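Example 3.2
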Amino acid sequence: MLVAAWVLLFPVCGWSLSVAFINPGKSDEAYWVTVTQAMQAAASKLGIALEVTYLERDHAKAVDVSRDIAARPSHSRPDYVLLGNEGGFGPACLRILDGAGIPVLMVFNGISDLSQRKLSGAPREKYKLWLGTLEPRAEDAGYLTAKALIEKGRAAAWATKGGSLHMVALSGDKLTPSSFLRAQGMRRAVVEAGDVVLDQEVFSGFNRERAAEQMVWLLQRYPQTRLVWAGNDLMAFGAMDAARSHHLQPGRDLLFSGINTSTEAMNALRSGELGALAGGHFMLGAWALVVVYDHHHGRDFAQREGLEMVQPMFSLFNPEQAARFSQMYGDGRFEAIDFKRFSKFHNPHMKRYNFEFQQLLGKKG
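Structure, written as tokens:
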């Protein structure tokens, strides 16, 4: 049984191909809903019939959804499936879909763990229809936000008598590659700084309530904390909730960072409650549609990009850019983006993809 599905249906006539996306997030989670909205806009511009199934963060259900897709009559199967490796279930899904003859592009999180690699091999080897991967350069998000957070902490002269700034970190989980890489970027910024003490890193599962619970005892254990790094916006908001319960004002008594471009995150950055915010990777699903669209039309990304693409997609936002983003794309308004502009099929002289988000904050499209 499918867990929860949001399906965008188009008449078969007039649409060049069909794509199913197994969305690992929740159907009411701002980030993953925005991913879907951007994909919907890209699908409309490129003539793609798009189907999206939400796993509601029950990552094991990706295997069930893959089985359901593979069991369909051949005329009802999608031309491509997009899926991630959240929770480490990617290899099992690849086995099922490859066996059904359905091409797969892994998105957001690829297969980097060595034990999983033994099961899956490399793209187009053991599983011939595993076309490759498209991932954001996730370490950038952790590095950019931590570096900005540290710089603001220095500007506020919050170092202790020993000359150190004290930080705690709320990471996502231990299994998702992007979570590990964001934290790796954060730790790189801490090492480079030289005057920052990372007192503790905890795993909050990308969950606001869990982050709030953990932040309560982190504040009790490390009262000298002034910097709070979070691996996404929800965990940052949870940590802020805990700070307020201790009569600490975000932006005044503590500095917080987050990742994602939700409306709440943009508003928090503009108000000063968030000291640093990075985002833009929500566009990856839309970019993946560009990639499979080109592949379908004979422009194989492997020729110039390689089989496992890791693209810079994160931007560090300032309050002015947050306001511009909200004005241009608030409420999921991505219809003005000309996605054909980023397609190699429609631009035969294009050699490499450029999926950096900053270009979308200038002139629309």
